[in-house]
Every structure is written in structure tokens, then in C-alpha cells.
């Protein structure tokens, strides 16, 4: 085990200062989220090109990220993951493994961790978690377990599984690409093979999985009760009122649209109850008759004003309406705002939501907190959870809508199960050819996309919805930043500074510090940005120390693939935030010990397998 001794000096040039200033500005933009991450990435490209005399990034290099092998490979893998998802393979596997769990929390966790980590080794973990949120929630409810005990482990297990193979996460693919670019300067670096670090990934999965199964659930509170009553959970009754259309009402013979206009913007018509039945999120053109009951979501002052204006009769909760609601509470479902949803950044408009999605919004949970009072006009963000009421057919349609994640399984899911053999064969061929190094993963993945369409696993128009475009733009934006760091000498300067700070420390401790630093940075900026910024610095530091650059690159890559300290560090953490009813501190409580455990396991594994 070596010890850091000394370093040489590198002059601080104007080029280095400019590039480091751009890096600092990019970090501030990513952390503050003043602009969406994809827009920030485009701005980063433009800035590097405009400052070419100092950054050395020409227009061709500035946009090279779009044609980069890592970017195109990630795009193809996202589409392949969508193809697997459409067949329902992951859900079926989860159902079979969960059937033995019943009411045993450890068996439930074992099934959750086992299925999720295995699937995430070969599929992008974002769609895996989106698919399994409703499955795991139902497993918890059937076993009389709080979903809060299983949903954070679901997200963490997906991140653990991403460390198993080259294609487990976009971070691995990008790290391999950066490693290739740096190989001219550091001969120890090279492109990663499909299973090059699987032995270390397996060690991480086993250690992290054991922690989640045997320790982690004790640290997680039961935020959401088993078989939760959504009406009670969201305190919906406080905001619901019944308005009867009387003979003297101005709304007799008028439409729902007219009623909405006259009642005002703070009143949303959730249901229309007629003698012939009940309409959830009634159509705007539907006509009102004497005796009809409008169930509205509002506050008391707004509904009082509305009844005066329209001569409707405000009554106590109608026992008939209550009985119908109680009998049909399966029409209530939580929707999580997805990563690339059109809803992100939009103000909540209940009527527009009803028209677009066919569902009536009853409640909202944002940042883990129940929103009391008015929800109209609130800006939605990734991970926000909407409580909506919709019929079974609409819930099925919503489960296939990329804008939202339905937090329980739809009554009649429509998977292309007959295409499952084709999807499995295509994915196995893609992985097999790349693993045997017959063709690069870029070629096999693109060929797999074509095969998915030709075989009918995916429809051509589904290809574009399958891609998480913000990730693609982020990759395209940060890749030239990594080039600028390396070519201007900024990475080497940072490495020399770290060497000075590490003087006298054992090399394995320096390696551990890189892991911890990467993990903390990943909590506030994108994992892909962390890899691009830190791998050049890590490789340069290792070279200065006379250490193995490959070991340092692996430490950065594994640390960037795991973000356990909060809900914003990784998109899968946001997906379970609302359905689990979590608070910010819940992630830290269970995630901090896991992060510390994996730092020791990962660094120890790297030292054992590859040396320092």
C-alpha cells in the first residue's frame, strides 16, 4: 500500500481559469435548477463554443456529444428497455417471486431486491422502477405491509443492479467512453467490456441487498399505512361538497362547462350523480337536470359564493353518494409525475387535466408533504403525486401514458405478452454479441432497436416516447466539458491540488476519498455530470501518485451510480417519494449507512481485484 509523497507544479493559465469558471457555473446551474437540465446542457455547449479561444472547444467538438458513442448507445438501450417493458416480463417475474413472500417483510424485501437488481443489470433502471412501483405497492398491501417499507429499497436496489454490467446504467456507458478518450494519456485505461466489473457489481449488490433486507427496513418509518384509504390519507372529505341542481337553478339544462364557468376557477366538478348512475370527471358537454348532484372539490367560501350565484343547494354528504363512493373507491389512484412528463413545470389546471387525461384531481402531494387548501395553479415537478379519480378503462390508459406513473397496477393491464419470447431473444443477442466482442455494444444495441420494431415488440411511433431526452441532451452537453477539462490542463491542475492535500495519506484512503466525494457531488448534480467532471481528475491524480488510474475510474463510476442520501440525487428516488409518503430525512436515515457500507465494500473490492 503506497503513501502519497510529492507532486510537480503546473502553471495556472488563462485557459484553465476560464474552463474552471465554466465548470463552476455549470455546477451552480445544475444545483439550482434555474433552467431544466437539458436546457442547461445546451447552454453549456454554446458557452464552450463561444469561448473557444480559451476552452479549445470548436463548434464540431461542441456538438460532438450528439454523435458520441455513449450518447447513441444510451439512446438505443432506453428503447430496448421500453420494448422489454411493453411485454410485461418484469411484472410477471415480480409477481411470481413475490407470491412466496406473503406477509413476511424480509421475504417481500428479498423479492423486491432480487427482481429489481437483476432486471436493472440489463435494463435502464428508470423504467424498471416505474414499472415496479405499482407491483411492489400491491405486494405490500396484500401482505399487510406499509408500502413505505418497500419503495425506497426498490429505488436503491435498482441503483445497485445498475453496477452489474456495462449497460446497467447510462453512467457506466459514459464512463467507458471517457476512459477510452483518456487512454492515449493513461495506457491502463480502455473501453469496458460487458462484464468487466460484474464481480465487483455482484459484491455491491450482495452487500447492499443484505443491508436492505436485514437492516434498512428497521430504519424506515411506516409513512403510508397498509391498504391505505386515499380519502382519509389525502383528507379529501374536507374539500368535497355536494351541490344539488334545484328547480330554480340557473344551471338547469346547461352543460358541465357552463357550471364550471359559473362556479368559478376554485371549484372543480369531480363527479356528476344522476338517477341513472355516476360520472367520474364528467364530460364538459353533459347537460344538467333537476335533482342531479354535483360533487365538487373546493373550499367552503368558494362553494358558498358559487351556490349563491347559481342557486344550487349545498347539502351535507348524501348517504347515497357516499355509499357509491365507498363501493367504487377502486377508482381512486395515485399518479406520479414522470421524468419527461409534459406536466413538469406546468401549473395545475384541474379542468385541463380532466380534459387531457380523463381523470379528476382530488389531492396533491409535493415534496413528500400533503398540500392542504387550494391546489389549482401550483407548479408541478418530477415526483409530485396526484390523487385522481377515474374509471377502470381510463386507469388502464394512464398506465401506458409516459407523462405519469400509476402507483398501483391497473385493473386490466394490456401487455404484449405474446411478444415476450422475441424481446428476450433480442436482448440476449444484443448482450451476447457485445460480451463476446463480436460487435461493439453500439452496433448490437442499434440492431436490437430495429429488431424490436420488425418483430412487433414496439410500434415505430413508440420509439421516441421511450427515450429520456433530457438524459440525451445532458450527455451531449457535458461530454465537451470533459474534453475541455482534459485539453486545457484543468483536470491535471485539480489533480495536483488533490495530491498536495493528500500528502502522507495511504493510497487506498485517497481512493476512498474519491468515492465519497463523487457520491456527495452526485447528490446535487447529475450522475453523468459527476462522471465527466471527476474521471479526468481521478485518472490524473492516480497518475501523479503512481497508482492505477483504472481503479480510480471505477471508484468514481460506482459512486456516481449510487445516490442514497436524498430524493433529488437520482430520478428513481423521486418516483417513490409520493407513493411512499416519504420525507426528505427518510432517505438519509436509511441511505447514509448504506452509502458508508458500500464505500468500504467498493474500495475494498477494487483494491482486491485490481490493486491501487
From TrEMBL:
This is SLC13 family permease. Gene3D superfamilies: Regulator of K+ conductance, C-terminal domain (3.30.70.1450). InterPro entries: Cit_transptr-like_dom (IPR004680), DASS-Related_Transporters (IPR051679), RCK_C (IPR006037), RCK_C_sf (IPR036721). The keyword Hydrolase does not apply. The lineage of its organism: Archaea, Methanobacteriati, Methanobacteriota, Stenosarchaea group, Halobacteria. One of its GO terms (cellular component) is membrane. It comes from Haloferax namakaokahaiae. It holds the Pfam family TrkA_C. Keywords: Membrane, Repeat, Transmembrane, Transmembrane helix, Transport. It is found in: Membrane. It is a multi-pass membrane protein.
Amino acid at each position: 500500500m503506497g503513501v502519497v509523497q510529492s507532486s510537480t507544479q503546473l502553471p495556472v493559465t488563462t485557459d484553465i481559469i476560464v474552463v474552471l469558471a465554466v465548470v463552476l457555473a455549470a455546477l451552480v446551474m445544475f444545483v439550482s435548477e434555474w433552467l431544466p437540465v437539458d436546457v442547461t446542457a445546451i447552454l453549456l455547449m454554446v458557452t464552450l463554443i463561444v469561448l473557444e479561444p480559451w476552452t479549445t472547444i470548436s463548434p464540431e467538438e461542441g456538438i460532438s456529444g450528439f454523435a458520441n458513442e455513449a450518447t447513441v448507445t444510451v439512446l438505443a438501450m432506453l428503447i430496448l428497455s421500453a420494448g422489454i417493458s411493453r411485454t410485461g416480463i418484469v411484472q410477471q417475474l415480480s409477481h411470481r417471486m413475490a407470491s412466496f413472500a406473503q406477509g413476511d417483510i424480509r421475504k417481500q424485501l428479498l423479492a423486491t431486491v432480487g427482481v429489481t437488481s437483476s432486471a436493472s443489470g440489463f435494463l435502464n433502471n428508470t423504467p424498471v422502477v416505474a414499472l415496479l412501483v405499482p407491483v411492489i405497492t400491491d405486494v405490500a398491501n396484500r401482505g399487510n405491509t406499509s408500502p413505505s417499507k418497500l419503495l425506497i429499497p426498490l429505488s436503491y436496489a435498482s441503483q445497485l443492479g445498475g453496477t452489474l454490467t456495462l449497460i446497467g446504467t447510462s453512467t457506466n456507458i459514459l464512463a467507458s467512453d471517457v476512459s477510452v478518450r483518456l487512454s492515449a494519456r493513461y495506457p491502463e485505461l480502455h473501453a469496458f467490456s460487458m462484464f468487466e466489473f460484474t464481480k465487483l457489481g455482484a459484491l455491491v449488490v450482495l452487500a447492499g441487498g443484505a443491508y436492505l433486507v436485514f437492516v434498512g427496513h428497521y430504519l424506515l418509518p411506516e409513512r403510508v399505512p397498509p391498504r391505505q384509504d386515499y380519502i382519509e390519507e389525502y383528507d379529501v372529505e374536507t374539500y368535497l361538497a355536494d351541490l344539488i341542481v334545484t328547480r330554480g337553478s340557473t344551471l338547469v339544462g346547461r352543460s358541465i362547462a357552463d357550471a364550471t364557468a359559473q362556479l368559478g376557477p376554485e371549484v372543480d366538478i369531480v363527479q356528476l350523480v344522476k338517477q341513472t348512475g355516476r360520472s367520474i370527471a364528467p364530460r364538459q358537454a353533459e347537460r344538467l337536470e333537476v335533482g342531479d348532484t354535483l360533487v365538487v372539490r373546493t373550499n367552503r367560501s368558494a362553494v358558498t359564493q358559487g351556490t349563491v350565484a347559481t342557486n344550487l343547494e349545498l347539502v351535507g354528504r348524501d348517504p347515497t353518494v357516499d355509499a357509491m363512493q365507498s363501493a367504487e373507491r377502486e377508482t381512486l389512484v395515485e399518479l406520479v409525475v414522470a421524468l419527461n412528463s409534459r406536466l413538469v413545470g406546468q401549473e395545475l389546471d384541474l379542468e385541463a387535466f380532466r380534459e387531457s387525461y380523463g381523470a379528476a384531481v382530488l389531492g396533491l402531494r409535493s415534496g413528500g408533504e400533503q398540500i392542504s387548501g387550494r391546489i389549482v395553479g401550483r407548479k408541478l415537478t418530477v415526483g409530485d403525486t396526484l390523487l385522481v379519480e377515474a374509471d377502470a378503462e381510463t386507469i388502464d390508459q394512464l398506465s401506458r401514458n409516459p407523462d405519469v406513473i400509476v402507483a398501483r397496477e391497473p385493473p386490466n393491464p394490456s401487455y404484449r405478452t405474446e411478444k415476450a419470447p422475441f424481446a428476450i431473444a433480442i436482448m440476449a443477442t444484443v448482450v451476447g454479441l457485445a460480451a463476446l466482442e463480436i460487435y461493439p455494444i453500439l452496433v448490437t444495441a442499434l440492431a436490437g432497436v430495429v429488431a424490436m420494431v420488425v418483430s412487433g415488440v414496439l410500434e415505430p411511433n413508440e420509439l421516441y416516447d421511450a427515450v429520456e431526452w433530457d438524459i440525451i441532451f445532458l450527455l451531449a452537453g457535458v461530454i465537451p466539458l470533459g474534453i475541455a477539462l482534459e485539453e486545457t490542463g484543468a483536470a491535471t491542475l485539480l489533480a495536483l491540488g488533490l495530491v498536495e492535500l493528500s500528502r502522507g495519506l495511504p493510497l487506498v484512503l485517497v481512493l476512498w476519498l474519491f468515492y465519497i466525494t463523487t457520491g456527495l457531488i452526485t447528490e446535487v448534480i447529475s450522475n453523468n455530470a459527476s462522471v465527466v467532471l471527476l474521471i479526468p481528475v481521478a485518472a490524473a491524480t492516480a497518475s501523479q501518485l503512481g497508482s492505477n488510474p483504472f481503479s480510480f475510474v471505477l471508484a468514481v463510476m460506482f459512486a456516481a451510480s449510487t445516490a442514497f442520501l436524498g430524493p433529488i440525487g437520482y430520478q428513481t428516488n423521486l418516483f417513490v417519494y409520493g407513493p411512499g409518503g416519504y420525507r426528505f430525512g427518510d432517505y438519509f436515515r436509511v441511505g447514509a449507512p448504506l452509502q458508508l457500507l458500500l464505500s468500504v465494500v467498493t474500495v475494498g473490492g477494487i483494491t482486491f481485484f485490481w490493486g491501487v
